[in-house]
């Protein structure tokens, strides 16, 4: 992971993911990530704003900078770091910094031109009702559940840390590397999972993130209200994070990963949980005529196929009438 907490203005200006956020401010994932990070590190807000101002001040026209633009950019970088650092150093050190900054400027401009043209990551996506196995460049595997998205930066396996962004649900089987590259999964609410080699499931929908450890060991980083909390998880443990609070309990991981084998294992599973799955995984709108029905529970297993077969299985298991009109489902006694 890039140690953003130790970044200077210069570091932010030349960082790939920071540049992409500045050049694509309307894109949801980088926006949510940086907003969450700033909420956790308010002391870095000034540096971030200065770096963003530098990048936004560059005026591109057919990807060519005029002499005036280059001068303006150089002056912005020099003035900011002069005011913060160089006044405390000797002139010889300052001259060395200028040489390094000149190289940094060239690298930054080259990178920024590239990101104006294309996204810096590779994206994997599943449609409603679809699961997919993704083999990552290091041979780690991710089984993506329906309606899920996985993103990795290009050149991912060549970076110091292997970082992944997840929306939806995925089962991760992580390969240990010879140089002990950390493997990190991030969600848009600021939760991250650190691992060297293990199997675990991450679920992130709406306002809740759930992590279930099947084997190995992971460290969970949670953005609590006042500070970040780190939790070491053991196999068979589940952590749910919602609203800056979390709870940890022991579970049977097979109950939560059976979807990778195209089935559901039900253990006093409520109709409410099944309704949530219909919405998240199949994109269906569900209407329940009596809210108390959502509290009914069943145990057993069901095959996971298409939505129609699942609805038939649910009607039989809960002994309810389920009708479908397009993408709208009605459940009644």
UniProtKB/TrEMBL annotation:
GO MF, any single term: sigma factor antagonist activity
Protein FecR C-terminal domain mapped to chain residues: 263-331
Keywords from the UniProt entry: Membrane, Transmembrane, Transmembrane helix
Record-annotated membrane-spanning stretches: 96-115
Coiled coil: none
InterPro entries attached to this UniProt entry: FecR, FecR_C, Ferrdict_sens_TM
Start and end residues of each FecR protein domain: 123-218
Protein name: DUF4974 domain-containing protein
Source organism of the structure: Chryseolinea soli
């Amino acid at each position: 992971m890039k140690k953003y907490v130790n970044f200077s203005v210069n570091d932010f200006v030349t960082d790939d993911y920071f540049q992409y956020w500045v050049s694509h401010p309307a894109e949801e994932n980088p926006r949510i990530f940086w907003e969450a990070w700033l909420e956790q590190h308010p002391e870095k807000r000034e540096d971030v704003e200065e770096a963003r101002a530098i990048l936004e001040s560059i005026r591109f026209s057919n990807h060519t900078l005029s002499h005036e633009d280059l001068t303006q950019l150089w002056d912005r970088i020099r003035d900011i770091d002069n005011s913060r650092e160089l006044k405390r150093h000797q002139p010889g050190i300052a001259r060395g910094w200028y040489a390094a900054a000149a190289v940094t400027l060239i690298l930054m401009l080259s990178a920024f031109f590239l990101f104006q043209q294309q996204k810096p990551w590779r994206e994997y996506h599943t449609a409603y009702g679809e699961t997919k196995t993704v083999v990552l460049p290091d041979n780690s595997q991710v089984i993506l559940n329906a309606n899920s998205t996985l993103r990795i930066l290009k050149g991912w396996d060549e970076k110091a840390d292997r970082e992944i962004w997840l929306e939806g649900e995925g089962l991760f089987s992580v390969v240990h590397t010879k140089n002990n590259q950390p493997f990190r999964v991030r969600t848009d609410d600021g939760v991250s999972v650190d691992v060297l080699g293990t199997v675990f499931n991450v679920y992130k929908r709406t306002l809740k993130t759930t992590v279930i450890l099947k084997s190995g060991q992971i460290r969970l980083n949670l953005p609590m209200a006042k500070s970040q909390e780190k939790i070491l998880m053991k196999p068979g443990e589940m952590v749910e994070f919602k609203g800056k609070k979390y709870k940890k309990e022991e579970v049977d991981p097979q109950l939560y990963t059976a979807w990778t084998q195209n089935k559901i294992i039900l253990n006093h599973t409520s109709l409410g949980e099944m309704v949530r799955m219909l919405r998240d995984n199949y994109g269906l709108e569900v209407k329940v005529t009596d809210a108390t029905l959502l509290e009914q529970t069943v145990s057993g297993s069901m095959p996971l196929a298409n939505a129609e077969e699942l609805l038939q299985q649910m009607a039989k298991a809960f002994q309810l009438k389920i009708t479908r009109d397009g993408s709208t489902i009605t459940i009644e006694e």
